[in-house]
User: Fold Short-chain dehydrogenase from Rhizorhabdus histidinilytica.
Amino acid sequence: MKLAGKSAVVTGAGSGIGRGIALAFADAGTNVVVVDIEGAKAEAVAAEVAARGVRSSSFAADVRDPAAVAAMADHGWSALGRIDILCNNAGVCLTGPGFDISDTDFRWQLDVNVVGVFNGMREFGRRFREQGGPAWIVSTGSHHSIGAPTKGIAAYVASKHAVLGLSEAFRTEYGPAIGVGVLCPGIVNTSIWDAGRNRPAEYGGKVSGDPRNQQAMLDLGMNPERVGQLVAAGIENEDFYIWTHPQDLDLIEKRYAEGRDTITRQWPDGPTAEHKMTPHEV
Assistant:
């Protein structure tokens, strides 16, 4: 799908990957609504977008709330006339051993990373279908969506597996008129390790991230503006998967090999009479 002349909504765009996507869209001639839970940051990025010669607007929203996502969509259509692209990018992460994760920490990460993505897919999918014409939804997963083994972020990993699953499911439901993609970034230079600064009171309030994790992101992470360029290219190429690190090919091959080897060992003769149907054949 060509980006020039289109209009997009990008969540979590006050910094990091979302900001990188918004700027890449602007460079491609796409108008952008910059959304973030921190309204001042959204306004600042919207100004950067406008300075690149396209129309922009900002909106503060908590994507956990379906009413807020509906209001975000209303604002987008009102500000830009139509919306063609949604980037579900808002996300959070807290670290710690899986057996020590509190119920509230687990729920907060899934509420933002999974429920927030679902809210966007559902709300914008309905509107894209009513609007007609081509549209595209990209949701930010992770290389953890395919099993990058990392200790201390069990809830985050679970949430990013769910983003991939939601994207695959909605891809089959939407059909060709609404394209779906999933961004699977590796380490990127963002402030996600400090996401606890925005944790609501109902989940325990603000919490500081581990500065060592943040420094590792600064030292090793890819420039988020480069990630934005990859997202723009992925949409134009109509790719489902958008990768940032080619090293992740090893993860894909390892997962495939383990699945293939266990199936062939457990069922050496292949399907039998008891295997009447497999889920993907329904």
Q: What stands out?
A: The domain at 7-247 is CATH 3.40.50.720 (Rossmann fold). Helices lie at 16-27, 39-50, 66-80, 103-131, 154-174, 211-220, 224-236, 249-266.
